[in-house]
Write a structure and sequence with these properties.
With 297 residues, this protein is mainly α. The protein is built from nine helices and three strands; from the N terminus they run ααααααααββαβ. It has helices spanning 2-29, 32-58, 73-102, 111-139, 144-150, 154-183, 187-216, 222-233, 268-285; strands at 238-250, 253-262, 289-296. The chain has a three-stranded mixed sheet. α2 packs antiparallel against α3 and α6 (154-183) runs antiparallel to α7.
Length: 297
Amino acid sequence: MANNNKSIYSALAANLLIALTKFIAGAYTNSSSMISEGIHSTVDTTNQLLLLYGLKRSKKAADQFHPFGYGKELYFWSFVVSILIFGLGGALSIYQGIAHIKEPEVMKDPFWNYIVLFLSLIFEGTSLFIAVKEFNKTRNGMGWWDAIIKSKDPSSFLVVFEDGAAVAGLIVVMILMGMSHWLQIPELDGLASVIVGLLLVFVSFILARESRSLLMGEGIAPETREKIAQLAEKDVAVLKTKNILSTYQSPEEVILMLILDFEDHLDTEEITVAIHRIRESIKKEFPLVRFVIIQPE
C-alpha cells in the first residue's frame, strides 16, 4: 500500500501545482476549456485527499462496534471519489462547454493557455508515469484490464485512471483550443470542454463499478479457494471441504469461512483441536487471511 501512497502523493502535488494556474489562464483568456481543466484539476486534488483519508481510516484498529476493523472505509471513499469525478468533474465540464457553445466568447491571445497546458502535461505525464510504474508492480503478469478487475485495492488503479484522463483531456483541449483560435470558431473551445466532461463521466462509471463491487464484498480468486480447500483436506481429521465463503475487508485483509466434513469418529475436543490446527496452517500459508471461521458439517 505504500507504493500506492507514492502515486497518490505525486498526483496530489501535480494537481495542486496546476489547478490555480488553469483557472487564472482560463479567466484571463475567456477559455471555457481551460476553466473545465481547472475544475478537473481541482476535483482530482480533492479525490487524492479523500483517498489518503480513506487509506488512513482503513487502518484504524477494530473495536466493539466494528469487530472486523475499518478496512472497507477505503472502498467507501473510492466510491465517493467516482461520484465526485462524475458530478463535479464530468457534469460541470459538460455544462460549462454547452453554455460556451450556446453563447460563444471570442478567445483572447491563448499564449498563456498553451504555457499552462504544456506545463500541466509535463506534471500530469510525470504523475501518470509514476502511477503506471507502481501499478505494474501489482499486476503479476496479468493484462491491464484483468489486473484492474481482479485488484482489491482501488487506490492502485484509481490514480492511473485519473491521470490518464487528465493527460487525454489536456491533449484534446490543446488541439481544439488551437483550432478555435486559428479558425476563429469559439464553439470549438466549448466542444473541448464537453469532450473533457464526457471523458470524465466515462472514467467515473468504470471506477464506480469497481468500487461498488469491492464495497459489496468480493471474494478470493477461484484458484486460491482451491488451494485452501486442498490445504484443509490434507489434515487427517477432514474428509472433505463442503464450502468456502470469503470477502475482502480491505486490500490486505480477508475474512474466510470454511464448512468442513470431519471424520465421524472424532469427538468434540478432537474436532476443536483440528479446527485450531487448520486455522493456523491457513493463516501461515495465506497472510492476507486474518479471520478464519470453521464450521463443522
